[in-house]
Write a structure and sequence with these properties.
There is one protein chain. By secondary structure, the chain is an alpha+beta fold. The protein has one helix at residues 57-79; strands at 13-21, 27-42, 45-52. The chain has a 3-stranded antiparallel sheet, with helices on one face. Strand 2 and strand 3 form a beta hairpin. The radius of gyration is 15 Å and the shape is globular.
Amino acid sequence: MLKGQVAFNEGDEVKLTIVLPFANGDVKYVITEALIVRIFEKEDKRIATIQLTDTDDVDQQHIVRFCFERQLVNRRKEMNPFHV
């Protein structure tokens, strides 16, 4: 999600720092470059779709692990909405 004035446009290349907080308390920082593919609004929020362009194998593994953990958490919430 984007907050405030957007300083880039579709097609721009940007440098990102992605913070990945894992379930076990570890926090990994992925510093990479990306291409802004699309900027759009949804439910009064501005969202940018990005394509990572310069991410090494280790950082890719961290991103995949983070996404997998989040999917598990979301699935557990869906299956048992009364358990936090």
